[in-house]
Automatic annotation (TrEMBL):
Top EC category: transferase
Residue intervals of the Carbohydrate kinase FGGY C-terminal domain: 272-460
Binding site for glycerol: R83, E84, Y135, D255, Q256
Binding-site residues for ADP, renumbered to this chain: T13, R17, T277, G321, G421, N425
InterPro entries in alphabetical order: ATPase_NBD, Carb_kinase_FGGY, Carb_kinase_FGGY_CS, FGGY_C, FGGY_N, Glycerol_kin
Gene that encodes it: glpK
Annotated pathway: Polyol metabolism; glycerol degradation via glycerol kinase pathway; sn-glycerol 3-phosphate from glycerol: step 1/1
Domain Carbohydrate kinase FGGY N-terminal: 5-262
Protein family per UniProt: Belongs to the FGGY kinase family.
A cellular component term, taken from the record's GO annotations: cytosol
UniProt-listed PROSITE patterns: FGGY_KINASES_2
Keywords: ATP-binding, Glycerol metabolism, Kinase, Nucleotide-binding, Transferase
Name of the protein in question: Glycerol kinase
GO terms classed as biological process: glycerol catabolic process; glycerol-3-phosphate metabolic process
Amino acid sequence: MEDTYIGAIDQGTTGTRFMVFDHAGQVVANAYEKHEQIYPEPGWVEHDPIEIWENTQSVVQAALEQGGIDATQLEAIGITNQRETTLVWDAETGRPVHNALVWQDRRTTDRVEALQDQDKVEWIREKTGLEADAYFSATKTEWILDNAEPLKLSTSRTQDLRDRAEAGELLMGTIDSWLIYNLTGNHITDVTNASRTMLYDIEALDWDAELLEEFDVPEAMLPEVRPSSDEEFYGTTDPDGFLDAEVPIAGALGDQQAALFGQTCFDVGDAKNTYGTGSFYLMNTGNEAVSSDHGLLTTIGFQMSGEPVQYALEGSIFVTGAAIEWLEDVDLINNAAQTAELARSVDSTDGVYMVPAFTGLGAPHWDGRARGTIVGMTRGTRKAHIVRATLEAIAYQTRDIAEAMENDSGVETTSLRVDGGAVKNNFLCQLQSDIIQTDIARPEVDETTALGSAYAAGLAVGYWDTIDELRDNWQVDREFEPEMTADDADRMYARWDDAVERSLNWATEE
């Protein structure tokens, strides 16, 4: 196997990456390209699916060229993706009917509030494990079918999108489906992505007819749901296509489940937190779908070929890394690396709290109308205080989730595996350890999202035989232990709820 590899397409919120891994789980090639963030109105976020597909082809070719690897040396490709981001496209032409609506998009908040008024929240939660929220794909698909400009069938006439969807002429999917379709011609998703649509019954493991009726989404437009690691493959790349090779597409996981898999959290109680644009804290609950009383989501963790689904509890935080990007956007920092230096330059925030609710608040608050707030400023507040408050907000939001996770699962977190771009920041990792009073383990390969999808694809084609081989690959780069006393951590955390309270239900005009 020295001359063969597994590839992973990691299609994220801000860009697309292709990584190539060897049998030891080490990166041998890596290329990345950003795509445009489109904000048509306040609270609306879109991506151009064509740009994403073009960038995907570009980074795959760039990584292979950089690594001196021929596509025929890839035994399989796995896909991981920004979850919930939703698009609808023409089955014949492959052209999207509208930009993709991104998971952060809040345009369907009114629709969600109507569901709340109709007392349908618990009904949805029982079937899907999810909160009724604009975050998920159901209301996004409904909006596209109701509001996208009809496709022009000729120069003189148009046809209603819903009629075409009923006839199976339009396809709906999350970004994994879009990439699988373009790579293989097949309309397929995996169980983890299906579980994030708010249209899928996570215990019956099927699209739910009542939910499809509620959101007026025709079943004919939905993808086939397959295991996350699929020995039957989702299809193969076109030997006459951009790769000039027939490579199996054999694994897919939503990005947070992929990180759970890449962190080898295969046992009940194993937990990880990924710090990307948002942060997502997942704990493996095994074959049991544990319901939450504390604002967490019950979701599908992964499924391997011929095996039962493994479930997870999830705390979804919408904005963490994006808060650091905001600091850069408003010229408080020049680059993300500067945050640690500025934060260390002051002993505390001097009472400043920052709530980065730029796109509402996720778990455990679930307020789509919350907005970003800075409180506690005085004339003596400097940018270092605001920067430090932003890093502390990331840690506080994670503690919110950690406490809810322990209350729901009954399992005390003793060590948390972390990954994502922000964990390169040692100051943040130490702060996180202090605030939640838990050891933090950062792995050598911190791009565990891509690694997880590579593992899923590699297991499907026999590149790795067992998950024990994957456990052996996992290596700690650095561990962080609490240096702050529990009393000091509690004191800092005590006013966080007060700050959050001031951010709630702000965007009442949207």
